């Protein structure tokens, strides 16, 4: 329903701590790790199949500026929604009565595509929204002044619908080049380029400024490419495909840097998407639909070549991995008034080099280490736990699976921080963190979404 549910009041939904930690650079709160997690299942977020039933929602993405989120569905539409009703329990609750100020929920419906919208992605600064579709095209939208006949104009009804748009979003460019369905999109960290992948087995990279034009076409995959993610440092682009490989491409010359296939050979069947994630410090990439023997895993590849703990626990294939945009720190070991001890987490590693992201000259690892030092508020080594009043910074990653569950992991622990079951009745297809790092959204093939807020 529409009412918010906390982990405390509905323990059948999740297990785990329900707490991410303190963002790097923020003073630790000192609270015990028992904070509630608020879960909202808004019935008013929907895509219609034309017969009065919910259509699958293939993609969801929170605007980096934090006020909006977008969804893409099987109904060939992309929709832009307000986040305010989800953050404010009073405005989200339909039963609150007339004392609550009405807040618009649906901001705009975009009807430019003539096929299912498989992916929606905001650019890093939040000004542009890219959409990829079964109609083989990519559209890029921006907020503009309304006017008669303007696509998505404020006050105008979406074509073929009685819905009225609150915000005037219009198409800024249409990118045509793929010969089959476009399945995933990814903006470069600086927003200067946009990558798309398709059932046509290719990855296309487009220049987004000052005009949209192709930069490269990457064709080494031999099956539909179903997921993309950029290295946050901008030096690599990763693609994952049904040919059971994850490929790392150098952005300086668009040649392949590395191919990872060992842990994907046991993957059976198919998934709608194969959406990998890259940690904000650049240290880890997590691949989807990987297996360790018969067990589905989120495969963790390290930039340094050191083998990390994989994310193990889902009973179905992992479809999407999404890293939190923030780094977090644990508190330094200390004794409380009861004599008990709290300790910061540490990385569990071995000496295997099989999961290296690429053959680096060391600059990438050094840059990633520098990022961690800055996040920790200290020029000393982040592993010392001496900076910023806490321990070593760690990344947080969420996984969505065919088993309909969502798990949230720390890069420094071998067990999940939290696991959520029964939120959906079908496969989890996409995940998106809010810019604060304390909000997570998910969408499913059952046509519903979930909003998670961590204290």
Please give a handful of descriptors for the protein shown.
5-stranded antiparallel beta sheet, 35 strands, mainly beta, 455 residues
Verbal overview:
This protein is mostly beta strands. 5% of the residues lie in helices and 39% in strands. It contains three helices and 35 strands. The longest helix has 14 residues, at 363-376. The protein is globular, with a radius of gyration of 21 Å.
Distance between the termini: 22 Å
Number of helices: 3
Strand order of the largest sheet: 1-4-35-34-33
Beta strand %: 35-45%
Secondary structural class: mainly beta
**Average pLDDT, to the nearest integer?**
81
Supply Rg.
21 Å
Q: Can I get a quick summary?
A:
The protein is mostly beta strands. It is built from 3 helices and 35 strands.
Task: Set down the secondary structure blueprint.
Elements: E1 5-6, E2 14-16, E3 22-23, E4 37-40, E5 57-62, E6 68-73, E7 78-82, H1 84-87, H2 89-92, E8 106-110, E9 117-122, E10 128-133, E11 137-143, E12 169-176, E13 182-187, E14 193-198, E15 203-207, E16 213-218, E17 225-230, E18 236-241, E19 245-250, E20 256-260, E21 277-278, E22 284-292, E23 295-302, E24 311-312, E25 318-323, E26 328-331, E27 334-335, E28 341-342, H3 363-376, E29 390-394, E30 396-401, E31 406-410, E32 418-420, E33 428-433, E34 439-444, E35 449-454
Antiparallel strand pairs: 1-4, 2-32, 3-26, 4-35, 5-6, 6-7, 7-8, 9-10, 10-11, 11-12, 13-14, 14-15, 15-16, 17-18, 18-19, 19-20, 21-22, 22-23, 23-24, 25-30, 26-29, 27-28, 30-31, 31-32, 33-34, 34-35
């Amino acid at each position: 329903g529409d009412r918010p549910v906390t982990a405390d009041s509905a323990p059948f939904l999740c297990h785990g701590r329900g707490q991410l930690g303190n963002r790097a650079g923020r003073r630790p709160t000192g609270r015990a790790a028992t904070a509630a997690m608020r879960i909202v299942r808004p019935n008013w977020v929907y895509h219609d199949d034309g017969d009065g039933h919910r259509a699958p929602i293939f993609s969801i993405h929170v605007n980096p500026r934090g006020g909006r989120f977008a969804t893409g569905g099987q109904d060939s539409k992309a929709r832009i929604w307000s986040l305010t009703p989800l953050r404010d329990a009073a405005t989200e609750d339909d039963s609150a009565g007339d004392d609550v100020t009405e807040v618009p929920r649906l901001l705009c419906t975009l009807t430019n595509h003539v096929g299912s919208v498989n992916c929606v992605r905001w650019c890093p600064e939040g000004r542009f929204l890219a959409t990829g579709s079964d109609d083989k095209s990519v559209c890029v939208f921006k907020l503009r002044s309304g006017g008669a006949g303007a696509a998505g104009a404020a006050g105008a009804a979406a074509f073929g619908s009685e819905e009225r748009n609150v915000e005037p979003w219009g198409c800024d460019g249409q990118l045509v080049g793929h010969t089959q369905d476009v399945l995933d999109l990814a903006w470069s960290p600086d927003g200067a380029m946009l990558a798309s992948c398709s059932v046509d087995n290719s990855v296309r990279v487009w220049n987004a400024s000052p005009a949209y034009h192709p930069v490269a076409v990457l064709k080494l995959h031999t099956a539909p490419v179903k997921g993309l993610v950029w290295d946050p440092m901008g030096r690599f682009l990763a693609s994952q495909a049904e040919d059971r490989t994850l490929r790392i491409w150098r952005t300086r010359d668009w040649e392949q840097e590395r191919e990872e296939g060992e842990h994907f050979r046991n993957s059976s069947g198919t998934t709608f998407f194969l959406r990998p994630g890259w940690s904000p410090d650049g240290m880890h990439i997590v691949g989807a639909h990987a297996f360790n023997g018969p067990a589905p895993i989120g495969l963790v590849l390290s930039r340094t070549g050191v083998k990390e703990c994989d994310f193990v626990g889902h009973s179905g294939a992992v479809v999407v991995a999404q890293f939190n945009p923030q780094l977090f720190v644990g508190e330094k070991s200390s004794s409380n008034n009861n004599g008990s001890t709290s300790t910061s987490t540490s990385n569990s590693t071995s000496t295997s080099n099989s999961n290296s992201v690429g053959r680096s000259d060391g600059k990438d690892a050094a840059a990633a280490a520098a990022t961690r030092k800055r996040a920790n508020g200290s020029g000393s080594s982040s592993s010392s736990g001496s900076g910023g009043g806490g321990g070593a910074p760690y990344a947080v990653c969420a996984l969505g699976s065919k088993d309909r569950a969502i798990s949230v992991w720390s890069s420094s622990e071998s067990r999940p921080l939290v696991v959520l079951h029964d939120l959906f009745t079908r496969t989890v297809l996409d995940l998106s963190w809010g810019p604060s790092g304390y909000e997570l959204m998910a969408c499913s093939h059952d046509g519903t979404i979930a909003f998670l807020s961590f204290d």
